[in-house]
Design a protein that fits this description.
Layout lengths: L31 H6 L19 H11 L4 H10 L32 H5 L2 H30 L3 H7 L13 H4 L9 H11 L1
Helix pairs in contact: 2-3
Length: 198
């Protein structure tokens, strides 16, 4: 059983204090004086040769056509005379020199003039743009209105020009057309009835 307050011991016996755990490297380390006196130097690698790029037949064919070549023999002679190579896109990968006119990154945007900010020039320009846009929209609406009168369909025409209301004509038999009933008195009867009442 383990002792009180102590973990149980395993059954393996540990080596003595002179034992070194891990791999022992047989290397003499002289400390700081040896590190200062013997620097580890790295030999420079040989400069890689300039890569020979393949021939750019597309560019050569385009140039041959510009020169007026039309036959296969003329193209072959032109290819033997002109030697255009593909451009090395990875020119900066292997220690190549940067071309003199090459610039990395995006060009900076022009600075904003502070005087225009103080005078609210951008607000005025925006207002002018809005006014011009309103004028253009008004002109377009006028043109659409004129074109709409020419190209309107039946529905829009009837909405703007409604048909006249037809008067209702009640149909009667012929034998009842001559009879004057009390509902429809003749003008002479109306005058007589007016005179008798007055």
């Amino acid at each position: 059983q383990p002792e009180l307050g102590k973990p149980m011991r395993n059954c393996y016996s540990l080596p003595g204090p002179d034992f070194t755990y891990g791999m022992y490297m047989h290397k003499r380390d002289g400390g700081v004086p040896e590190a200062i006196g013997h620097w580890d130097t790295v030999k420079a690698k040989a400069h890689p040769r300039k890569r020979v790029m393949p021939r750019d037949f597309v560019a050569m064919g385009r140039a041959a056509v510009d020169e007026g070549c039309t036959k296969a023999r003329e193209f072959a002679l032109y290819y033997g005379y002109m030697d255009i190579r593909c451009k090395d896109k990875g020119i900066l990968r292997y220690g190549g020199k940067v071309p003199p006119g090459m610039t990395f990154g995006k060009p900076p945007r022009p600075p904003t003039p502070f005087f225009d900010l103080m005078q609210q020039r951008y607000k005025e320009l925006w207002m002018e743009e809005q006014r011009a846009r309103t004028r253009v929209q008004h002109m377009v609406k006028k043109k659409v209105g004129i074109m709409g009168e020419v190209r309107e369909n039946r529905t829009t025409f009837l909405r703007t020009h409604p048909l006249p209301v037809k008067e209702e004509s009640f149909w009667h038999l012929r034998r009842f057309e001559k009879v004057q009933g009390p509902q429809n008195p003749s003008p002479d009867q109306r005058q007589l009835s007016w005179a008798s009442t007055s």
